[in-house]
Automatic annotation (TrEMBL):
Its EC number is 2.7.7.108. PROSITE patterns: FIDO. It comes from Skermanella aerolata. The keyword Nucleotide-binding applies. One of its GO terms (biological process) is regulation of cell division. Pfam families: Fic. Keywords: ATP-binding, Nucleotide-binding, Nucleotidyltransferase, Transferase. This is protein adenylyltransferase. The keyword Lipoprotein does not apply. It catalyses: L-threonyl-[protein] + ATP = 3-O-(5'-adenylyl)-L-threonyl-[protein] + diphosphate; L-tyrosyl-[protein] + ATP = O-(5'-adenylyl)-L-tyrosyl-[protein] + diphosphate.
Length: 195
């Protein structure tokens, strides 16, 4: 659970995020969220041009049944363990910056798998550090990355993803080392294209 410094998104006297079904128990909300977002993830993702608004639409698609603010940037400062994410007042500019990088890099098109994995790792590491949403950043990141990889001809097989290894790589990338994340992504591409 994230640790906000000030949080109007939670129920009074609680760390449970305000939600559409009005669940006040953290475990019940976690189960509901996992179930409905998995169902939404099985549906076609919103069409778009791989920009900031498209990214917001993907978050909205996944979390529309859970949170009224789905698809909108967070308004509170959050941290997870020792990692403080981008302050909310800087999120719009930082999102434009990282998606500008993606556009300048031609959305990573025309690259060999190793080059794609390296560029994707950099993009994903930066996006994770921004953490634009109050909840659901990881699932939105993966959904977007699958879409990006598919469009560049490097489809990812998330069935091969080791969650612990991926989490460790994401933490390392937050601390400035993107190599492990690039390796994880490259291995997902290699396994998919080797079949």
């Amino acid at each position: 659970m994230y640790e906000p410094l000030s949080d109007p998104d939670t129920y009074p006297g609680s760390t449970v995020l305000k939600n559409i079904p009005d669940l006040r128990d953290a475990a019940a909300l976690e189960l509901f969220e996992a179930t409905v977002t998995a169902e939404r993830a099985g549906e076609p993702l919103p069409a778009g041009r791989l920009g900031v608004r498209h990214y917001q639409n993907i978050h909205h698609h996944l979390f529309q049944d859970v949170y009224r603010w789905a698809g909108r940037f967070r308004t509170v400062r959050i941290a997870k363990e020792n990692s403080t994410f981008c302050y909310p007042e800087f999120i719009p500019a930082e999102m434009e910056r990282i998606f500008g990088y993606l556009k300048a890099e031609k959305f990573l098109n025309g690259l060999v798998p190793l080059e794609f994995a390296s560029g994707a790792a950099h993009f994903l590491a930066e996006l994770n550090a921004i953490h634009p949403f109050r909840e659901g950043n990881g699932r939105t990141q993966l959904a977007f990355m699958v879409l990006l990889a598919f469009r560049t001809g490097h489809p990812l097989d998330l069935g091969q993803l080791d969650p612990r290894r991926f989490l460790a790589a994401m933490i390392a990338s937050f601390n400035g080392d993107e190599n492990a994340l690039a390796i994880v992504l490259r291995n997902l591409i290699a396994r998919q294209t080797a079949d």
